[in-house]
Amino acid sequence: MTILIPAYEPDERLLDLILQLHNFQLEPIVLVDDGSGPHYRGIFDMAEAFGCTVLTHEVNLGKGRALKTGFQYIQETGLPDYVVCADSDGQHLPYDINRIVESLRNQTTPGIVLGSRRFTGTIPLRSRFGNSVTRTVFSLTTGTKIYDTQTGLRGYPLSMLDWLCQIPGERFEYEMNMLLTAHKEGYTITEEYIDTVYLDDNKSSHFRPLMDSFRIYLPILMFSTSSLLSALLDFTLLFLFQRLSHNLFLSVAAARLCSSVFNYSMNRKYVFTGGKRSKIQASLPKYFALVILALLFNYGLLYFYNEKLIIPLVAAKLLTEASIFLFSYWAQRRFVY
Fold first, then answer.
1. Beta-carbon contacts of residue 52 (< 8 Å; ≥ 6 apart)
2. Is the pTM of this model over 0.70?
3. pLDDT tens digits for range 14-56
4. What distance, in Å, lies between the first and last C-alpha atoms of the chain?
């Protein structure tokens, strides 16, 4: 197998990890110096002396780009078997890295193996909170439960490298995009629980809570924006058609048809791209099948709230849209695009 380690401004813990990996006979090791600069050149020179291959970015391009650089190098040089990615800050123990290798060897179908942290003991608050929020949002919006969506310890068979190089994202959002698109491509996701190691309250992490969290949640935020704009259009047209026709079903159907055409165009172009747009002939029929299903739910819930519970139409519409939002995101990501 090949161990791939992206590194930005590493310290001696990277060298300690390399020595431990050699002791476990986990090699070859490929490092990507992601623009650390001349001050860190000595560490990478020492790593090369230990037998590692060092690839260098002149400037910091982000973790996603560093991983893609490593994947491309592994493809071009024909390194064998599997690829296991680990962080450079000592959070991933050689024993756990070896467990990822064993899990890859036992696979029957190609897929991602995650080294999932259990978050027991003393964990920095931002790490515990961030992972809890991301885990919950990921589960609600995709229907897939993954305990640790932000782990950097991940293993892949060589057959996945082409796909891995095409996934959009240059920084920390890359790893989230990978999980979001894996199911659509038919790849399984397996979790191997590993020890949770945080040194010095995780001060060495280069994760920027605000900017990088925004990047990670961007696909979901984009879907929310698209849905909000579509809902506003639907909302406006509903009242317009209701005023003109005085027929609730006709008004709901006409408003939903117009807003769904807009929503399909936005989601296909900007949200569920996976690095490329889906073919219209493949996604359009599935999308409008979902629209029909959502329309039935929409009418049924709106009728129930407005006619049975005597809730005003404005409030009933808001309750209806909130009820089907998460279902729509999950269905579109999993089945449509």
1. 18, 28, 29, 30, 31
2. no
3. 999 999 999 999 999 999 999 999 999 999 999 999 999 999 9
4. 33
130 with 150: CB under 8 angstroms?
yes
Nearest to 271 by CA among 137, 144, 134, 177: 177
- Using CA atoms, how far residue 330 sits from 121, 293, 325, in Å, is 33, 14, 9
pLDDT digits (tens, 9 = 90+) for 220-252: 677 667 777 888 898 899 889 988 888 888 888
Q: Cα(66)–Cα(86) distance, rounded to whole angstroms?
A: 12
DSSP per-residue letters across 291-308: HHHHHHHHHHHHHIIIII
Residue 222's alpha-carbon distances to 34, 225, 304, 330, 331, in angstroms, are 28, 5, 30, 14, 16
Pairing of strands 53-57, 29-34: parallel
Length of the chain: 337
DSSP string, 200-265: GGGTT----HHHHHHHHHHHHHHHHHHHHHHHHHHHHHHHHHHHHH--HHHHHHHHHHHHHHHHHH
